[in-house]
Amino acid sequence: MDFPILSTIIFLPLLGALFIFISNKKNESSSAIYISIFTSMANLLLTFFLWYSFDKSFAGFQFIEEKNWISGLIKFKLGIDGISILFIVLTAFITPICIVSCIISVKKRLNEFLIAILILETFMIGVFCSLDLIIFYLFFEAGLIPMFLIIGIWGGPRKIYSAYKFFLFTLLGSVLMLAAIIFIYWAVGTTDYTEIYKLKIAKEYQYLLWLAFFSSFAVKTPMWPVHTWLPDAHVEAPTAGSVILAAILLKMAGYGFLRFSLGMFPIASEFFTPLVFALSIIAIIYTSLVALMQDDMKKLIAYSSVAHMGFVTLGIFTFNKQGIEGSMFQMISHGIISAALFLCVGVLYDRTGSRMIKSFGGVVNYLPNFSLIFIIFVLGALGLPGTTGFIGEFLVLLGAFKINYLVAILASTGVVLCAAYMLWMAKRVVFGNTNNTIVTKLKDINYLEATILIALCLVSIIFGFYPEPLLDTMNISVNGIIQNHQNELTVNLINK
Amino acid sequence: MENINIIIPEITLFLGICLALMVGVFFRNSFSIVMKLSILILLGVIYLILTDWGGEQKIFLNSFKNDTFSDYFKILILVSSIFIFFSSDQFIKDKTLNKFEYPIIIMFSILGMFFMLSANDLILFYLGLELQSLALYVLASIDRDNTISSEAGIKYFVLSALSSGLLLYGCSLLYGFTGSTNFDEIGVSLITQNTGAIFAMVFILVGLAFKVSAVPFHMWTPDVYQGAPTSITNFFAVVPKAAGLAVIIRFMDLPFKNIIEEWQTIIIFISIASMILGSVAAIGQTNIKRLLAYSSISHMGYALAGVATGTVSGYTSTIIYITIYVVMNMGTFACLYLMKTEGKYSEKIEDLSGISKERPMLAFSFLILFFSLAGIPPLGGFFAKFFVFMSVIESEMYALAIIGLLTTVISAFYYLKVIKIIYFDDNKVKFDDVRNLSIKATIFLSCLFLSLYFISPSIIGSLLNELFI
Fold this sequence. Notes:
Helix content of chain B: over 70%
Oligomer: heterodimer
Strand content of chain B: under 5%
Strand order of the largest sheet of chain B: 1-2
Shape of chain A: globular
Low-confidence stretches of chain B: none
Largest sheet of chain A: 2 strands, antiparallel
Helix content of chain A: over 70%
Number of strands of chain A: 2
Low-confidence stretches of chain A: none
Number of helices of chain B: 19
Structural class of chain B: mainly alpha
Largest interface: A-B, 36 and 34 residues
Number of strands of chain B: 4
Mean pLDDT of chain B: 88
């Protein structure tokens, strides 16, 4: 038997959390800091090794691990393909950044925060590794507990309302998915994804099951009109919480659409495409307009997340190579850029205690280094060529133009609107006159903050100019998804 | 001579009770001796049951039956009772309830449950039920100088007597229409055309639903939970519920097996009503014992959803559910014994405000227990619900499954409320530092079980493999 590398990657952070829990002392967190940085970095190296040894020319799942779990019913099955590996690397990359940002800005109960983040990392990587629907659900839902606590304990003034809203919205969406998963078990005889992929689900069941999965993923994505939890959660969550939420938790839904909705219900996916397009277009245009009017920077970025995720869902449901690769790229790019933007807002918030756009102005005169990085990310978010944001949006629009001009044109307006709100915010925060004396006394970013921001910046620019490694990794798996989709549709057409 | 071996645990328990009673009467301040003796007796009975595990045997003209099913529930009852004895020791002394009758009455009610579980005959079943109920009436009002406790006892007595009356009426109708009191014979002669017997089934179900506090026969639960001393509430929440559900399964599986469609409708209704009322009514509660009362009502709803399928997998899922429910409640009530400020036990939820700073371990235990009660993965409570919904959907009862899953969202709201109070609010009350190993061990074991259950979720299921033939 091979070394179970996926289980190691999943459970290593949990082990780290356990160590912190055991060595927990009151008002003493240096050991916790070392343990958490060590485990998250070790995990990052392991995922790099995984990516390195990943076979890009193999279409199926790799590194498969299988154990009997619920005897006779369900197997504990893990495995990755070209799509999930990228999300695993993203998760492992974002987690140490979150931990560093916690160490900088969290003042109370740091140990517990670090435990929560490490446990959350376990659950997030678990989501992307699981090949069994029940295991997927288990990890998908379990992430709610640490995130609820992160928002509730370390959040802002309306933290309780936001934590509740986050938890109950997501849970409500997910219980329907649980019902659908159990139904699939009895209808197909297994919840093993690779088996279901081969056995196919009967056409008449697909529509309802698709809707049940959709209810869960739409809340998590979040799609209009169930996106309202996201701005609240983002605004009230601490910086590290916002980063994880934007960078990874939202991606679980995109991953879910790609893997499960498309893979298991191709006919229903085709059938419901107009619905997804309509909701995505509304999300792109409406939330961009809402973002224009925000005076809280975090809220603005949160609404821009909804708009960006609108591009993702749009791209996934184009069912062509450009569209799907574009949404994958968009998800990763959004994971990096929105994380960085939240960190930038966190930098300002730590120093002034305010996130309001109007309390800043002329920041560039006092924090030149910070302003440079901030502007790079703002440009990345609006899709400037040379950053990852451009490639994602460009590919999605390319895919959309292939199948529907109207949708593509409407979506393109989102790009313009995005530029409008992002640049307007940058103008009011970074440039202009300083009308707040506090800003004049601020210190520029310190070296820990610079490290994590520059790391994100480099990743965004490198992959912006040279996207090949990412596209290469996902290429065959994306082809597989499209191939399967078209085969199913042809079979369906012949049957008619 | 019939094989009397299979009734030895009951005989031992009875003789043990008599012995404990003698010790209690003849020694002064005998509470702690009787308590220790009772624990020893219960351990001995566990040993006796384990040595003669499984195998279906009947004696006394087929009126007493012993099989894996009854053995499993007997062990469950005994183990949870031992944990209750251990963890409530300190509480009883603080509340000056340390009279030697206390463990003895509990053991009498356990004896009654044993006969309920092993009964294969209406008469023996009713006798066991009454022995159990009489002991419970006394227990509810054992804090006799306290008006609320006495009120709880009276309420429970009056309502329970009424339900026992209905149940007895049902039993007599059943005898009248089928001509037998033996479960096997009733099972054969009870068919859909026998309208009178279906009336009898309804009466019996009403009586049993009362015992497990399912809606609409739940009215006593919040008052009794609140009024009775916490240790007794602990017993009420766990042991009679398990026994009651076991008896419901026994009735559905044996005498009523030919009229599935008739009783299914009733159980589905009771189950849905319990889930909805239990989740909605708990939202406004300020007393934690009242909250747990409503929570137990909704849990009974989920457990009954498994029974409602009328299939073996459904019954098994109910048994798994009740086992995990027992573990969760043992832990939660043990946490309540630690809610003590300046020597007084507190029951208000708001007193838990911000204890996560002063008492991180207690807060963390509450976290695991309440998320588990809410059924959030990867904790034990999720698997309990998961198995039930597995069997419900297997039986194609989609409406029941969807309503059940949606009510878990509603009930998550009030569990979250407690978590919110513990973790997000500011500290108000300072709890005493209770140094009691047995309480902490109970909490620890319960939390450990719930958080590690995901490693091997089929562990209870595999014990139950040969339960139904």
